[in-house]
Structures are given as structure tokens and as C-alpha cells.
Specification:
CATH topology of the largest domain: Rossmann fold
Number of domains: 2
Number of strands: 13
CATH architecture of the largest domain: 3-Layer(aba) Sandwich
Distance between the termini: 15 Å
Shape: globular
CATH superfamily of the largest domain: Glycogen Phosphorylase B
Largest sheet: 7 strands, parallel
Strand order of the largest sheet: 3-2-1-4-5-6-7
Helix content: 40-55%
Number of helices: 19
Structural class: alpha/beta
CATH class of the largest domain: Alpha Beta
């Protein structure tokens, strides 16, 4: 059984599932996942959209739904006990699940470590009592778990294999009606519903600023597979009146006749209309079509880095979650690309700092940074050699055979 709780975990788990099937086609895989896991041959009894919440306030609001999934998972385990359960990141849910699985004597493998290095390293002591084997993506994670005497394997990051571009930038832009000759800026607000609600409005406002400064710019809004199109359309619809009001404020009601005023307003609306397209095709084709990216913090920052796209990292959460996180997080950055690089190579705009003006300014800086390409190349090199999913799959099979 494989348990993933969000979009990036679904993709990593899918890669592992394909590798497991390649090594042993007789394996039966079930679990919690999304479209990627289903396509990889996993029988998903619950979709990740049931669990895709983040932050203390959001979790509390969705406790009933999360508990229902938790109970359903244990029921599945009891009715058809698996040889092993592979937990993929998502520690708030998965570590609680691990306690119950441990009572049943089933082997537990944790693939993609909780970010103990960012929060509480002493959480490793708890993980050690529950997990039979850790499989980690970064070398510094192996050092942490080894220090506590855990069985841990570093396999490298599966993104090195997963990022495959099938269509070049020109082909993608033309397919969605954008120009191949203009600067293309991406909006990647996240894969959870609350992330869309919190990030997309300020990203849209930043895009408006960038477009007003230079009309030779266009925008792609990348839709994650876990996000309903209607949610994005609703945010766009709610956002458009502010653009209309902004245009009206730019007019002068006393500048001429009603006909002249109407013509002036029409001209302003046309000037402020944002050349933006929603893209829901292959994710890496979409990112590759961008020249710079506004991206929500998470695995997406590594995906963007591996495609060598300059970025600004944005994140907003509830104030309670932010206050607690600020008190607990002990590393200087939250963006994975900066953590892996060991320094800030992408601007991070968190909570109050995530304003349209600051995002737009950071994108301008990133677009003209002559050193960013070399820095992103170093990040790619530090993520290990190809074959991470296959290496992880071999370790899984060694545990259950």
C-alpha cells in the first residue's frame, strides 16, 4: 500500500510504483493517491483531494473528512493486509497512520522524509520507533537519520528522471494562442485549494504590474491536476472587477463628452487586459514554456530549477500557522531550491511580504540576473544521478522479501 497526501507526493509515488512494477509485475499496489498513481497502476481507494490541506487552521476545519479517510485506510489494511505500507511525505497524517500500522505488525517504509531538518530534528526519535526503513532524497537527510541509528538509504531525487519536456517552448505557446516572440511569465500558485485562494490574487496583480510596465509580456497560469478548473475561474472572475475599477480610476470624468469618456475608458480597459492563458497540459512542457516564474513554495521550486527557470517563491498561510511555523522553523529559507543550494538564489516572499509590488520587482530582478543559470545548474547537479525511483524500488523489495 502506498499513501500520498498531495500532488507532489502523488507524482513521486507514481514513479516508485512504475519502478516496482518493472522489477516485479506480479505486485499488487493499492493506496491513497491521484491521477499519476492511478496511471502507474495503483488501485486508489481514496483520492488525494480528500487530504490536500495544509496548515493548522485548515486541518482543524477538515478534521472530520481527514478522520474518515484515516479510518477508511485502516479498514482497507485490516480487510486485506499488505506486505508493507509505503508512506510518502505528508507527516501529519502519515506518522499517525504509522502508529496504527505498527500495532498490526506490518512493515513500514517511509519514502520522502518529513522535513525534520527544518522543524524538529528530535522528531526522528519518534520516526525511529515506527518506521522500518527510511528512503531519502537528499544526502544531508541520510546524515540526520544515520546519527540516530536508523536504517536509511539515500537514492537521489526522482525529479532528475521525471522532468521530460516533450514540446519546446514555441510549440506550447502557439498551442495556447500566445506569441513565441514575447517574454512569458508563469504563475504557479500551488496544488491545494487554499494555496490557489491565497496566492493567485497577488500573483495576478503582480502580472498586471509587469504587463503595464512592458506590453511585450504574456502570462501562463499553470493548473495543477489536483485543482478544479472552476476554482481558478472563480478567482479570475473575482479578480477582474479590480482591474476594471483600476481602469476606471485611470480615466478623468471631466475630460470631455460622454462619447470621448467612453472611448477613453475602452482604451484603458484594452491596455490593462492581461494576455494570460490557463495551461493544464503536461506540467514540464508548461514550465519550460516560461521565461520566469512566480511559484508557490514546495517541490515546484525544484521542478522550476531543474528546467533552469528564474523564479520568485511566494507563500501565504493562515496567521496561526505562520506564527507557529515562524517559531519552530530553524533554517534561514523555506524554498527547497534555496535549501538545496545552501544559499538564497531565488527571492522568498512570505506572508506580508507577498505583495504584488514585491513579486513584480523580484521577477524583474530574476529576469535580468546573469548568474542565475549557473546557480540553477549547480542545484540540478546536487540532486544526484538518474535512477532514483528504481533504486528506491529495489530497497522496497529487499524489505518485503
Amino acid at each position: 500500500m502506498i499513501v500520498a497526501g498531495e500532488a507532489s507526493g502523488d507524482m513521486r509515488a507514481a514513479g516508485l510504483a512504475r519502478a516496482l512494477k518493472e522489477l516485479d509485475p506480479t505486485l499488487r499496489l493499492s493506496g491513497i493517491g491521484g491521477e499519476h498513481m492511478r496511471q502507474a497502476g495503483v488501485e486508489c481507494f481514496t483520492d488525494i483531494t480528500e487530504l490536500a490541506v495544509i496548515g493548522i487552521v485548515e486541518v482543524i476545519k477538515n478534521l472530520d473528512r481527514i478522520k474518515k479517510v484515516f479510518d477508511q485506510t485502516l479498514k482497507q489494511i485490516d480487510s486485506n493486509p499488505p506486505d508493507a505500507v509505503i508512506l510518502v511525505d505528508y507527516p501529519g497524517f502519515n506518522l499517525r497512520l504509522a502508529r496504527e500500522i505498527k500495532k498490526r505488525g506490518i512493515k513500514i517504509i517511509y519514502y520522502i522524509s518529513p522535513q525534520v531538518w527544518a522543524w524538529r530534528e528530535n522528531r526522528v526519535k519518534q520516526i525511529k520507533t515506527l518506521v522500518d526503513r527510511m528512503i531519502v532524497l537528499f544526502p544531508f537527510e541520510k546524515d540526520i537519520y544515520s546519527k540516530y541509528g536508523m536504517k536509511v538509504d539515500y537514492v537521489g531525487h526522482p525529479l532528475v528522471d521525471e522532468i521530460i519536456v516533450e514540446r519546446n517552448q514555441t510549440e506550447v505557446l502557439k498551442s495556447i494562442g500566445l506569441s513565441a516572440s514575447k517574454t512569458t511569465i508563469g504563475l504557479m500558485p500551488g496544488s491545494r485549494l487554499k494555496e490557489i485562494e491565497r496566492h493567485l490574487p497577488c500573483m495576478l496583480e503582480a502580472a498586471q504590474i509587469l504587463y503595464k510596465q512592458n506590453h511585450e509580456r504574456q502570462f501562463i497560469l499553470l493548473k495543477a491536476s489536483s485543482v478544479p478548473l472552476k476554482l481558478i475561474e472563480d478567482v479570475l472572475h473575482c479578480h477582474s472587477p479590480s482591474l476594471l475599477c483600476h481602469s476606471r480610476e485611470g480615466g478623468n470624468p471631466e475630460a470631455g463628452t460622454p462619447k470621448e469618456i467612453a472611448a477613453s475608458l475602452a482604451s484603458l480597459r484594452k491596455e490593462m487586459a492581461l494576455p494570460l492563458k490557463i495551461y493544464d497540459g503536461p506540467i514540464y512542457d508548461g514550465i519550460n514554456a516560461m521565461d520566469a516564474v512566480m511559484v508557490a513554495s514546495g517541490t515546484a521550486t525544484l521542478e522550476t530549477a531543474l528546467l533552469k527557470k528564474p523564479m520568485v517563491i511566494v507563500y501565504k498561510t493562515s496567521w496561526i500557522t505562520y506564527a507557529i511555523a515562524r517559531a519552530l522553523i530553524k533554517i534561514p529559507y523555506i524554498g527547497l531550491v534555496n535549501i538545496v543550494a545552501g544559499k538564497k538564489i531565488a527571492e522568498e516572499l512570505i506572508q506580508n511580504d507577498a505583495t504584488a509590488e514585491k513579486i513584480a520587482n523580484a521577477i524583474e530582478t530574476a529576469l535580468h540576473d546573469p548568474q542565475i543559470g549557473d546557480e540553477l545548474t549547480k542545484v540540478k547537479t546536487s540532486l544526484g544521478d538518474p535512477g532514483a525511483s528504481l533504486r528506491a524500488a529495489r530497497i522496497v523489495l529487499s524489505v518485503i522479501t
